[in-house]
Amino acid sequence: MEASKSSPMEVKREFPVSRERLYRAWVQAEDLKQWWNPVYGKLVDVDNDIRKGGTVRYSFGSENGKPVVVISGEYSEVQEGRGLVYTWNWETQDESLASGSYELAVSFEGEGEHSTLKVVQKSNDDQEGVFPHREGWENALDDLFSFLTANSQTDDHQVEEEHRTSAESQEGAKSGDTEVEGYNELPEQQNVGG
Questions:
Q1: 0.85 exceeded by the pTM?
Q2: From CA 126, how far away is CA 91, in angstroms rounded?
Q3: DSSP secondary structure string for all residues of 74-142
Q4: Computed from CA positions of residues 182, 183, 186, 191, in that sequence, does the dihedral angle turn out positive or negative?
Q5: Is residue 89 a contact partner of residue 100, using CB atoms and an 8 Å limit?
Q6: d(Cα 46, Cα 176) in Å, to the nearest integer?
Q7: Burial of residue 170, with CB atoms counted within 10 A of its CB: 0-12 exposed, 13-18 middle, 19 or more buried
Q8: How far is CA 82 from CA 68, 158, 188, in A?
Q9: DSSP letters along 54-74, please?
Q10: pLDDT tens per residue, range 83-133
Q11: Closest by alpha carbon to 28, among 50, 61, 54?
């Protein structure tokens, strides 16, 4: 059976974070560089103009720092925090990887601390390229899940620590005890040597 533009590939994954957090992890460069680790190189540069007609460009480097793969595209639909549709064009100098032209539709759903991400990839070529494929997307979403759950635990700990510190400060203010950094002298010790 011949692969065609009409046979899209779809992957879906649930996450224990808010839809807004999931969306940020998908679009923000600092997050992307932490979780997106494909087999063809480290993500070294992200240029992401998230608006209809805006462009997206991801550069993946190798050990020598030269791009192995560049993925670029243009947004045709943007619903901030909810959905993105954009072209997904692979450019590579590595003969072991195939270049290709695709369209991605990425949707973000959920309420509270539960969300779902769905990626639908359609080929824009008559023949489907080698990358990305289902296994690649599933691995990427596994990495995203690991990043978000590890990061969520860190975020929860930081919120608890900030809450505890704030509560201690408020309690100290109520009791009239104010802490001063450094050495605190008793009133009778302040004029020693004076």
A1: no
A2: 17
A3: EEEEEETTTEEEEEEEEEE--TTS--EEEEEEEEEEEETTEEEEEEEEEE-SSS--SSS-HHHHHHHHH
A4: negative
A5: yes
A6: 51
A7: exposed
A8: 31, 27, 64
A9: -EEEEEEE-TTSSEEEEEEEE
A10: 999 998 888 766 555 567 889 999 999 999 999 999 999 886 655 554 447
A11: 50
Cis status of the peptide bond prior to 132, with omega within 30 of 0: yes
Residue type, 118: K
Contact 81, 66 (CB under 8 A): no
125: phi then psi, degrees, rounded to nearest 5? -100, 165
CB atoms within 10 A of CB 163: 10
| CA atoms of 22 and 39, how far apart (whole Å) | 23
CA distance 118 to 144: 13
- pLDDT per residue over 60-89, tens digit each? 886 666 667 889 999 999 999 999 999 988
Backbone φ and ψ for 118, nearest 5 degrees, come out as -125, 130
Tokens 């590939």 -> residue: 9
Query: Residue 15, CB half-sphere, CA atoms under 13 Å: how many?
Result: 29
Q: How many residues does the chain have?
A: 194
